[in-house]
Amino acid sequence: MSTQSSNQSLSAPLRTAIGVAALLNFLIGLAFLFGPELNINLWPTPVSVELKRFIGAIVLANGIGAAMIVRRGTWENARVLMMVAFIYGAAVFVMLLFDLIRGVANPFFWIYITVDAIFLVPVAYIYWLHERSD
User: Fold this and answer.
1) Is 129 within 8 Å of 95 (Cβ atoms)?
2) What residue segments make up the domains of the chain, in order of their start?
3) pTM for the complete prediction?
4) What are the b/e assignments for 59-69, b being 16+ CB within 10 Å?
5) Which of 32, 52, 60, 120 could form a disulfide with 89 if both were Cys (CB 3.0 to 4.6 A apart)?
6) 73 three-state secondary structure
7) Rounded distance, CA 43 to CA 28, Å?
8) Centroid of chain to Cα 71
């Protein structure tokens, strides 16, 4: 791997998009973490308090990680979280689509899978674009 490409600065639009994702993840993570106390339910089916906190912690951590990417602004700082985002997005897409096709998932999740696909394609392209320059 070349040092030059790994230290490549992220474009301003990409940093902005990651910043928006960081803010959304931070807010959604907090909403899941403190949802039981604030009577916030972001899920269309029942979820235990413990699972809400588990989801909230993961989403909050991703938000903080994305904020760190914006702060540092290099591909080297972004590459791991971008791969995590891709793997997460792809796994959720495949398994949720499987459940939706079988009719065992709440139809609300068609919205989720659509949003997932909208984010999955650019994440894969950005990762490929930066990694092929190595």
Assistant:
1) no
2) 11-72, 74-134
3) 0.83
4) bbebbebbbeb
5) 120
6) coil
7) 11
8) 18
